[in-house]
Amino acid sequence: MMVVAFEDDRPVGKMLTVVRRSKRMFPPSFIRRCEVYGIGEYFDERREEIFACMLERLTKEALRRAFLIEFRNLDDALFGYKFFRKNCYFPMNWLRVRNSLHRNDQPTVYMNPTRLRQIRKGLAKGAVIGMATSSDEVDRFSKMLAKNYSTHIRRHFPDFRFFHEIARAGQPPEAARIFTVNYHGKIIGGSVCLFSGSTAYLLFSGGLRKTYAQLYPGILAVWAALDYAHTHGYHHLEFMDAGLPFKESGYRNFILRFGGKQSSTRRWFRLRWSFFNKLCERIYV
C-alpha cells in the first residue's frame, strides 16, 4: 500500500508500506502487521509537514487492515517525534548494525580473525559461492532457507514466490541479488541482498550449519553479500534486523564479527486495540 501526498496535481511525497501475515500458527504471527521501512520519499523541502499528513492517513488506512503498524530503519531517530506521538505511536529502542565499505581497505581488515579463518577454511574445503538465477536454483535456495528459518519463531519468512521476484530484480539496474553457497552441486547456504542508492541491505541469510558445520555455510552466506557489495562500490552493508538492545544477543554477536558497528535507533509501533496501545505508551514513553 502506497500513500502519496499531493499539492494541487503535483506529488510532494510518498510512503510505501507492506501488510503481511506469516504462515506460522503461533502468536504473534497469526496477526496482520503493517511494516514501513524509513520515512518515505519527498519532492519538497517541507518534509516533516508532508510526513505528518501522510502518517495520519496511513494510520487510519493501515489499522483497518492490520493489528500492528511498525516503522523501522529510521535514519534519524528524532524525525517526526511529535507527529508519531500525536497519532498515538510508542517507541522502542532498537539496534542497527552496518559495515562501512567506502574506505580503501578491504572489508577483511576489520573482521574478527576467527571469522576470517572460517571463511578461508570453508572455501578451501570445497564450498563455492554463486548466485541463483534460474528457476530451479531459486526453488532449491528457498527450500534450504525455509528449513533454516523454521526454527526461528520471531523471524518472518515469505512465500517462495517472493524469491522468484527477487531473482528477476537482479537484472540491470539491479535491485536485489540471491547469493548461494554450494557444495558438490547442493545449495547448503545463501543470502538475499537488496540495493538502494549506495547501501546494500542483507534481508535474509542462513545455512545448513549442523549438517555442514566444517564448511561454515551461514558465515559464507553473509560473506558473499559483503564481498559483492564492496566489489561493486556500495558504501555500506546493513543488516536488516540486529534486534532489541539486550546485553546478550547471539545473532548480533555473530554479525558484529564481520567488522560492522552497532548504533542505537528506535522503532515506532501502533496497535489497533486502544486500551493495549495506551498501556504500551505508559510503559515505553
Q: If you average the pLDDT, what whole number results? A: 88
Which series of helices and strands comes N to C? EEEEEHEHEHEHHEEEHEHEH
What summary fits the major beta sheet?
10 strands, mixed
Q: How far from one another are the termini?
A: 28 Å
Helix content: 25-40%
Number of helices: 8
Strand content: 25-35%
Radius of gyration: 20 Å
Secondary structure category: alpha+beta
How would you describe the overall organization of this protein?
The protein has helices at residues 47-65, 81-86, 113-124, 135-149, 160-168, 217-231, 250-256, 274-284, and strands spanning 2-7, 10-16, 18-20, 33-37, 41-42, 68-72, 90-100, 128-131, 176-183, 186-196, 199-207, 236-239, 261-271. With 285 residues, it is α+β, with helices and mostly antiparallel strands. The strands form 2 sheets. A 10-stranded mixed β-sheet has the order 3-4-6-13-7-12-11-10-9-8, sandwiched between helices. It is globular and about 60 Å long.
Please supply descriptive tags for the structure shown above.
285 residues; alpha+beta; 10-stranded mixed β-sheet; 8 helices; 13 strands; 33% helix; 30% strand
Can I get a quick summary?
The protein is α+β, with helices and mostly antiparallel strands.
Helix and strand layout, with pairings?
Blueprint: E1 2-7, E2 10-16, E3 18-20, E4 33-37, E5 41-42, H1 47-65, E6 68-72, H2 81-86, E7 90-100, H3 113-124, E8 128-131, H4 135-149, H5 160-168, E9 176-183, E10 186-196, E11 199-207, H6 217-231, E12 236-239, H7 250-256, E13 261-271, H8 274-284
Parallel strand pairs: 4-6, 11-12
Antiparallel strand pairs: 1-2, 2-5, 3-4, 6-13, 7-12, 7-13, 8-9, 9-10, 10-11
